[in-house]
């Protein structure tokens, strides 16, 4: 079953991280939300963080993972906050099992198809030969040749851990991502609709959700609002956590 961190008491709220992320990325925001009367379930999706590795990596199987998690933890109805790939999982889950979802918050991803666009990051990760037993600084130096943004490098470095003395590894399943990267961009099926309250948050400096995407969003999520978080790109919850938290918690509480 999926690894999770559970914090707080109250209405269950699931947080689903993005591609190459993990539950640790949401620690601070989850703590704030827990103080507002929610029980936070911060999940590591399959092939990420401390969850299991699998050769299967599609939205369909990730939806079933979340369903199994809810059933095992006796969560009859949940609200879900998902970022990027986690937002897609949340959309697929809500349109597949609408009776399980109360409210949905989708952070900086739309229901449309996205072409593969992680080429530089993937090239950097694949350039790291962990069999040579590099230390953390050497890994970061290799990544720097492919990923110029400091914040993105630090985000990737969070998944690096010591298996044993002198031997680092990535927590995510890089070989499977190399084979199945195209699955990340999959669009929601044309007939997939979720009619309950949904909030889409987009970064003001991000191009993941464009104005011309609003019509498609409304088709799949007719009871949705779309708001822009200023001074933030794709990692809007990290770049402007104050406004991201404010919009999210207001929506969940109303």
Automatic annotation (TrEMBL):
Residues annotated as domain AB hydrolase-1: 11-149
SUPFAM superfamilies named in the record: alpha/beta-Hydrolases
Species whose genome carries this gene: Flavobacterium endophyticum
InterPro entries: AB_hydrolase_1 (IPR000073), AB_hydrolase_fold (IPR029058), Epox_hydrolase-like (IPR000639)
Keywords noted in UniProt: Hydrolase
Name the record gives this protein: Pimeloyl-ACP methyl ester carboxylesterase
One of the record's GO molecular function terms: hydrolase activity
UniProt KW Chaperone keyword: no
Taxonomic classification: Bacteria, Pseudomonadati, Bacteroidota, Flavobacteriia, Flavobacteriales
Pfam families, A to Z: Abhydrolase_1 (PF00561)
